[in-house]
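ok posting inputs for the adenosine-5'-diphosphate job
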Amino acid sequence: MDSPWLLPLSLGFGVLVGAAIVLVVVLAARRGRRAAAVVNSVVPDGVDQVIDALESAGVVVDPSNNVIKASPGAMALGLVWNEALVHPELARLVDRVRRTGELITEELNISRGPFGDANIYLSVRVARLGARYVLLLAEDHTESYRLDEVRRDFVANISHELKTPIGAVALLAEALVSASDEPEQVRRFATRLQLEAERLAKITQEIIELSRLQATDALAKPELVDIDGVIANAIDQNRVAADSHRIALVSGGDRNSQVYGEETLLRTAVHNLIANAIQYSPEGARVGVGVRHHEGIVEISVTDQGVGIPEEELDRVFERFFRVDQARSRNTGGTGLGLSIVKHVVQNHGGDIRVWSQPGRGSTFTIRLPEANPSSAANLGAAS
Ligand code: ADP
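and the output
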């Protein structure tokens, strides 16, 4: 097998492999540098470090509008792509500063990234950096704009929702006055007046509850809450409604789970789910409430065999004032706020809510909450 050219050949092969490895390493290092910093020319002293330390978006642009440095925040907002500013609006501001030398502050509403559908709201400051460069700083105000928008929508919705019952109360009061000589009519109008007043009280109470929940991200004084107690109470509160609809209300699953939170809020959440399950089920149907705890999570599911929710509406049912069937919900006294309240309660407890549903087959709403003492709860054992 030995031959005189085997040694030089293997040496040559070794050199080739070595060169290839060096080339790959150099290319990788180059690519890495580029991705991290978008730098390819010299930035004025200290600017590099300042941009690296910036939490918000910072971009340095050279005289040809090439981005020579961008902070991770600028990359995350999609302001820079291919070593250039993505948005012509930003490039125009940079040009203006270069021409006039004046500092500019502006509010902009632009897309996130070069192909982004979502819009972002930025407060942008652009200034000269030395003789050659321009510095662009941007603060992301998208979240506060969104909250403002939500707040405006909420107020508009509330006014709309209150208008109907308030109008009805006014009309019924008028009808009462003109029917004062007819006791039968008076009784009829007075009963309807009572219903509208109850509806107004319910909407007002739910709006107050929702505002309170939205005002904070977390609970002020969480306490240890027994899930068994929460479920027993929520079922009790719905017993009369279930009986009047001839609905069998059954519960089961794991016992002895605890979570940190506010008991009254958790009761309201489970109560709302059961009330809906009854409301949107035909007479004689079954509503089940089940608990499971595993891997530090408590799951509370409320299942019905009711009308179900069309797939395209599933994402919307947690929105305030959203109803799949406006007429039906209004007739049954629904406010469109129940699920919104559930979602906020669950979120304030560090959990989430999911829904499975099929029109005609029924729905299952599942609340998931972090368990307070996963190991001790597991030790207590699971009994059905
Ligand atoms: P509402 O007071 O109208 O019941 P919710 O916020 O509780 O308001 O629910 C929003 C909408 O979601 C309801 O109007 C209804 O269309 C739908 N929905 C809620 N729960 C169920 C359910 N268990 N089965 C079918 N539809 C439901």
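notes: Confidence is low (pLDDT under 50) at residues 1-13, 20-37, 376-384. The chain has four domains: 1-40, 47-140, 143-217, 219-384.
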